Amino acid sequence: MVKPKKHLGQHFLKDQDIARNIVEALSADNQQRKILEIGPGTGVLTRFLIEKYADNLTLIDIDRESIAYLKKHFQGLGDKVIEGDFLKMDLSHALGEEYTVIGNFPYNISSQIFFKILEEKDKVVEVVCMLQEEVARRLVSPPGNKDYGILSVLLQAYYDMEYLFTVDASVFDPPPKVQSGVIKLRRNKLEKLDCDEVLFKKVVKQGFQNRRKTLRNALKPLNLADEVREQEILNRRAETLSVNEFVKLTNDIASGGNTKV
Ligand code: SAH
Predict the structure, then answer these.
(1) Residues 172-226 pLDDT 10s
(2) Helix, strand, coil % (nearest 5) of the chain?
(3) How far away, in angstroms, is 77 Cα from ligand 1 center?
(4) Cα 9 to Cα 103: distance, rounded to the nearest angstrom
(5) Is 187 helix (H, G, I), strand (E, B) or coil?
(6) Residue 239's domain is classified under what CATH number?
(7) Whose CA is nearest to atom 18 of ligand 1?
(8) 10 Å Cβ neighbour count for 85?
(9) For atom 8 of ligand 1, which residue has the closest CA?
């Protein structure tokens, strides 16, 4: 067995039925697509992934001991088992133009994993993953809720998102301190947002920087034009804006307040 390492966020899922349910949450159209498993550990999900996707599977884990274990127990996979840091590695040669991500993510870096997925959003068609329940709920949260944050907006702009189920801490070895949640993301049809996407990201990030302030105050560092500053929408807080309202606000800011609604 592999000795669980806390600094790598290693909590190994023991329950085979839950593992199967996570893998079965993948959409039926994934047969032809590359599948990337992030953090396979000792392969509890891998086992079920191999049954359906053996030819298209790539695994990446940062832990040398887990990699050795996987290579020994799943011999057919050969060079599809990669030792490395998902956050730093360029996997484009292995994954091609379109791929799906699955994993019981290391909870300590789950936000960073999603920022990296967003960089690859035009390739990542689907994500099924387990993470800390609180974070999972936050990501799928609608506006108007204190859970709604930067990643909720950025991800919901490009993905249809769904909370699937909660997993109790007791089914892991060692059990984490928190409950876990499984979510599914599916790339929406939108190729590009209807605004300057770089500015959109800036506005969202800055807006949530001081989430209890009104947008008028929170967005001060962006030096908004006077016409923009007068707008009604800036009386609101970032957490109340839908993706579309952020898009509109981004366009207002870009044009110095002269957009016709
Ligand atoms: N999928 C397994 C293990 C989940 S624990 C299970 O469900 O039992 C999280 C896994 O992510 C561990 O195996 C850990 O080694 C790996 N991991 C942690 N940081 C990583 C990183 N930066 N890149 C890739 N894998 C990482």
Answers:
(1) 999 999 999 999 999 999 999 999 999 999 999 999 998 899 999 999 999 999 8
(2) 45, 20, 35
(3) 18
(4) 13
(5) strand
(6) 1.10.8.100
(7) 8
(8) 10
(9) 12
**Which ligand 1 atom is nearest residue 172's CA?**
8
Q: What are the residue ranges of helices labelled H in 64-195?
A: 64-73, 92-95, 110-119, 133-140, 150-158
What is the residue with the minimal CA distance to atom 1 of ligand 1? 40
151 and 38 within one domain: yes
Contact (CB, 8 A) for 64 and 1: no
Largest interatomic CA distance in the chain: 65
Q: For residue 209, how many other CB atoms are within 10 A of its CB? A: 13
Distance 111 CA to ligand 1 centre (A): 14
Record the tokens describing residue 115, joined without a space: 């920022």
Q: Give 11 Cα–ligand 1 centroid separation in angstroms.
A: 8
Q: Final residue of a domain: which of 166, 187, 208?
A: 187
Tell the residue number behind the tokens 């966020």, with chain if given: 9
Q: How sure is the predictor about 32, in pLDDT bands with cuts at 50, 70 and 90?
A: confident
Closest residue by CA, ligand 1 atom 9: 106
User: Quick one: which atom of ligand 1 is closest to the CA of 85?
Assistant: 23
**Atom of ligand 1 at shortest distance to CA of 103?**
1
- Would residue 260 count as lying in a domain? no
Per residue in 125-139, pLDDT (tens digit) is 999 999 999 999 999
